[in-house]
UniProtKB/TrEMBL annotation:
It catalyses: Hydrolysis of terminal non-reducing beta-D-galactose residues in beta-D-galactosides. This is Beta-galactosidase. Residues 400-607 form the Beta-galactosidase trimerisation domain. Belongs to the glycosyl hydrolase 42 family.
Amino acid sequence: MPHATPRGLGRLAFGGDYNPEQWPEEVWREDVALMREAGVNLVSLGIFSWARIEPRRGEFDFGWLDRVIALLHEGGIRIDLATPTVVPPAWFYREHPEALPVSRDGTRWAFGSRGAICHSSPAYREAITRVTTALGERYGDHPALAMWHVHNEYGVPVLECYCDVSAAHFRRWLADRYGDLEALNAAWGTAFWGQVYGAWDEIQPPRLTPTVANPAQRLDFARFASDSALENFRHERDLLHGLSPGVPVTTNFMVSPTQCDTMDYWAWGREVDLVTNDHYLVGEEDRNHVNLSMAADLSRAVGEGRPWLLLEHSTSGVNWQRRGIAKRPGEMARNSLAHVARGSEGAMFFQWRASRAGAEKYHSAMLPHAGTDSRVWREVVRLGADIGRLAELRGSRTVADVAVVWDWQSWWAQKLEWRPSEELNARERAEAYYAALFDRHLTVDFVAPDAGGLERYPLVVVPALYLATEGAGRRLRSYVEGGGTLLVSYFSGIVDEHDAVHPGPHPGALREVLGLTVEEFQPLHAERAVRLTAPGGGPELAADTWAETVVLRGAEPVWEYADGPAAGGAAVTRHALGEGAAWYVSARIGRADLDAVLARAAADAGLPERDELPRDLELVRRSGERGDYLFAINHNDAEATLPLAGAAGSRSGAGSGEELLTGERVSGKLTVPAGGVRVVRLDG
Ligand code: GAL
């Protein structure tokens, strides 16, 4: 079901997690009435209700769920029905204490919160089979069922389990991957520090060791952990496909690298019928809408550009952040519509009604503790109406200008200990380059290192790809030779899939395309900056944390180190290769200065300058059967005006269209109120 969307909505989705089991039944009728008032058409139901559904092993109580589903159905609200497998009931752990996961230091976690799961546990597998089958049999063909929501946020906050059962499972996974011990010993480089294995049962998960554990073993264990959870997801998905044919099955991701670092979402994206994502705005962060956009672009990417759905975000403050900063008026709508601009088929929240008890009672909700006489509720109702006006966008696709290569496995590898500097930070670089592209009003498609089809992007950016195979290097090389412009940041292309340095000088997998080698890494002292100057013209730039001694082998210097350990050497280079060019940035240039480098590469790629547009006026295009849609999201406190023709790379020559939220005709220029959003269907 590769192009699935929730069944039977007819509009974009609007709603949230609904936890009626936390409330007396009298409240349910009021819930449904208020949902209708707010324009809610989809709720995620039953995520944490295993203990209510199966109060004792094998004994099911579906009465309450039947009643609440009937009420929702009567109210015209469709259901994203969860399998509650993220929190097995207390009785399960009493029977199977061995199914509680063990941390790296050997501590067994306890029941009493959520997500305490050992994905290798046969008892857990048996229990999820029973409850998923019971749910699938009972509701698989219910007319209100829009989709299945398996589990909840696999991998958040923990995924790895180091117990003995997991150890045995890990060995089976390794045997599948390597076939024999000789291959494993070679891949893990066990000759180093005398770690050679002579029998499979000598191999353990990388538990706490006196000093740094084998990095290849750790990387494989991270892969194994993601894969073992994926096995459980696939198992539930396949049960549901069998019992509920034609109904899409999803599980909610948390693709933002700021929020989850345990899952290989490239692999997971291939397994769901519809990508769904949860995103929690970091209230305290300056310009946090940039990070939101990055999460939305990643969500679209893991579904290979297909429509996806934002399954959770917040109406206001988030109580697990250090400070639950309340959203400012209008911010929730900007957040929701930014996700829609970037491909979401709607906007859903955690949660419908604020909980009175439990760990999340201070988390904002669609219906807050303050009730309906509140700013949040009024904004929810307004947003529901706005989402309703965008029904025709269903199935249209976001159009990107630039590709950014990102890889979870490479990130995991780079984060391990004893890298050349503790301050090397892949996520920080990815976010910095993303922000620089955002500031140039360019829309990003994230791509995996093994992705084909790069030639459709004039510019490909590689902000942090420490682990890159020879194959990835060859693909980037042929992209450049064919006329593409590539921009690569430092500490990319260094190791292969086993975290072994590519033979020869750095950056092994990329030195040919970049036309250079790196003779020596030059990590900088804390707080010490270096200056970069451009002999051929260009602003002086500042860098900190990282520099390199670069040896040119075909590339030309564009910026050079004016001081610091690599003084006099090339810092930023350009290599003309075939029909294209490959840029290399060997230093950690701060966010503010990065734009100067990006501007040069973007010009090389023939991308338009959009200097006339205000900063933080977010422009994104979706394209569908009825035409092109321009989203203009104004994150500023002042009104913004932009020329419609050519905005966000639109094909529209006429520069006119219909604004869907106000119903007004617009022509020539579009004005976006301070903090407001406009969505224009451009005339074809
Ligand atoms: C998500 C989770 C929800 C809720 C929400 C707000 O990560 O899926 O169940 O906990 O965060 O904290």
